[in-house]
Every structure is written in structure tokens, then in C-alpha cells.
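Raw record, unedited: CsbD-like domain-containing protein
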Amino acid sequence: MSGSNNNQQPSTLKSYMDSATATVQNAVGSLTGNPVDKQAAAEKHISAENEREASHAGASLGPLNVSASGVTVDNEDRTQGKKDQFIGSGKEFVGNALGNDSLVNEGREQNREGQGLEAAGQLKDYVGGATDRVTGAVGSAVASLTGNPQAKDAYQTQHDQGKTNVRGVEAEVQKQQA
């Protein structure tokens, strides 16, 4: 997704700002006794909560990470690790069916190695994504201050891709823990 559409993408920071605004609006409504202010504050709180939830949504679909910010491809270690686990499990199954202990052990070892490789890839995607998010956010702010819209868009894209990688890893880890 292009960074120029950022206003339409869910933002955790925006949700916190909206929540704070709603709290102030609610306090004003309480002080003045104005039910319209209190109702507007309640609606803003709900909107902020929905925005916060949407900004944390993400999924890992095969080799893809998907979030409201876009789609990215898994680190190759994650993909290879999943393949190794699949092949290792197959060898283990066939070895058990044939009574071949050597094939069973080979499959278990390949499965174990695949789990390690996948975990290493998840870590690379998570750390790289977190780094891209910070670099993109800071770069976008600086580019905005200096009046460089192309750089701002490029940094926003970097931020969005980083966020998508982080959300994809989070979704995958949650699924593995379930």
C-alpha cells in the first residue's frame, strides 16, 4: 500500500490520541453537564478502541504477512523452516509406517532443524520489521518537516512494511501457541 493513503490506515498512535481527546471531552461534558459532549466522548472512545484493534490486526498466510498496512513476504528462513518441518514429518510418518527407525530419526531431525530455522526467520522478520517501523516513522516525520513528500512516502512505506512483518510474526506465534 502506498504511504500517501496513511490517513485511511489504522494507527495505534492515532487511537491513543483519540482516546485522550475523548477523555478530555468527557471531562468537559461532566463539568458542564452537557450530555451531547458526553455522548460524543463515548463515541470517540469506541472509535479509538476499534482503531487500536485494527492497527494490531495481522495474519500470516503461507509465506505472506498481511495487515492493514499491506502485504509482505516471509524471510526465506521462515519459508525453508516450514518446508523442512513438512518434509521431516512426512519422513517420520513413512518411517513409522514402514518400521524404518533410520527414516523416523532422519525425519525428526529435519523437523527439529526446520523449527529452529523457522524461529530464526521469525526473529529476523520481527527485529527487521520493528527497525523499519521506527526508521520509517522518524524518517517520515523528518521528511514532512523538511517538505520532501517523496521521501515521506518512501519512509511511510518502509514503516508500513515493517509493521506488516511484525504483525505477521505475532499472528504466526499466537497460532503456534494455541
